[in-house]
Amino acid sequence: MTINVGVVMDPIADLNYKKDTTLAMLWAAQARDWHLHYMEQGDLYLDQGVAMASMSPLTVFHDPDGWYDLKAAGDRPLAELDVVLMRKDPPFDNEYIYTTYILEEAERQGTLIVNRCQSLRDCNEKVFATHFPECCPPVLVSADMERLKAFHRQHEDAIFKPLDGMGGDAIFRVKPGDPNVSVILEMLTLHGRQTIMAQQFIPEIENGDKRILMINGEPIPYCLARVPLVGETRGNLAAGGTGVPQPLTDRDRWIAEQVGPSLKEKGMLFAGLDVIGDYLTEINVTSPTCVREIDAGYDLDIGGQLMDCIEQQLKERGRT
């Protein structure tokens, strides 16, 4: 039986061929002779309560000069798809939430959404990590500027960041005695009207911010350490960091063991843990990346492992 796979993503023409994780997933699905259907966020809609989309048949290629071909779009119920990969990058804004509402209608009719819609809404990538305090550095989530200043005084060297950021945007390191702490907090909290996160600074960031990929609650045994530029505190590749594939440490595996059962319970088939030194800092659930870099470092096929997991999930649902 042919499996019909939908993907909701940013414009495929604009992706980074060398690094894009969604492309690795699509290659793996196509290698199994599954049928691919391409959608952007604005292609989804509800018609009399039925989840619909204008979707285009998609073929993908291992060719940096032409990695995709799209056929003419047609309107179809999303429930006709066996699985939808929700790979729209943040920002996690109202439009993102509305998209999960539409996808959830298909989910109710048996379509597997990766990741589960309710969990995408419930699990803020910064705050979700605080569900595992034994894994995290000292951390505070608050809009209260005085409380945030007190956190800085207590820990002296702190990171302040918005709860809805990605790629290292608007992340500030505030060292002891920094005269700019007030203005930084005014900007990030909108003078106390917006909740942000404070974390104790972790010096081991110089060795990299590790991305540990999880498939149905189990870790891939290798990660990508995103090493910051000299003088930079952000390891994000989007902020100029360098990716270094490496095996998981015992501590990495322990953190994965603490978080994995919750990911599985919440239907998070594909997630990314961010670990600096010995500490969990974020749990990425919207569109985790770094598959291509880890694959290249250790001759893996993480996209294929995810497709195997999806196929097993579909068998359990009677969809194959």
In a few lines, what is going on in this structure?
With 320 residues, the protein is α+β, with helices and mostly antiparallel strands. It contains 8 helices and 18 strands. The strands form 3 sheets. Strands 1, 2, 3, 4, 5, 6, 7 and 8 form an 8-stranded mixed beta sheet that branches.
In words, what does this structure look like?
The chain is α+β, with helices and mostly antiparallel strands and 320 residues long. It is 28% helix and 29% strand. The chain is built from eight helices and 18 strands. The protein has helices at residues 21-31, 94-108, 117-122, 145-155, 181-189, 250-265, 291-298, 302-316; strands spanning 4-9, 35-39, 44-47, 50-60, 68-70, 74-77, 83-87, 112-114, 139-142, 158-162, 172-174, 196-200, 209-215, 218-219, 222-227, 242-247, 270-276, 279-284. The strands form three sheets. Strands 1, 2, 3, 4, 5, 6, 7 and 8 form an eight-stranded mixed sheet that branches. Strands 13, 14, 15, 16, 17 and 18 form a six-stranded antiparallel sheet that branches. A hairpin with a 2-residue loop joins strand 17 (270-276) and strand 18 (279-284). The relative contact order is 0.15. The mean pLDDT is 95.
| Alpha-carbon distance between the two ends | 6 Å
- Give the beta-strand count: 18
* Unreliable stretches covering 5 or more consecutive residues: none
Mean pLDDT: 95
> What best-fitting shape do the alpha-carbon axes yield?
globular
Beta-sheet strand percentage?
25-35%
SSE string, helices as H and strands as E: EHEEEEEEHEHEHEEHEEEEEHEEHH
Radius of gyration, whole Å: 20 Å
Described by strand count, sense and barrel closure, the largest sheet is: 8 strands, mixed
> With helices defined by DSSP (H or I, 4 residues minimum), what is the helix count?
8
- Helical fraction equals 25-40%
Assign the structural class, choosing from mainly alpha, mainly beta, alpha/beta, alpha+beta, or little secondary structure. Answer: alpha+beta
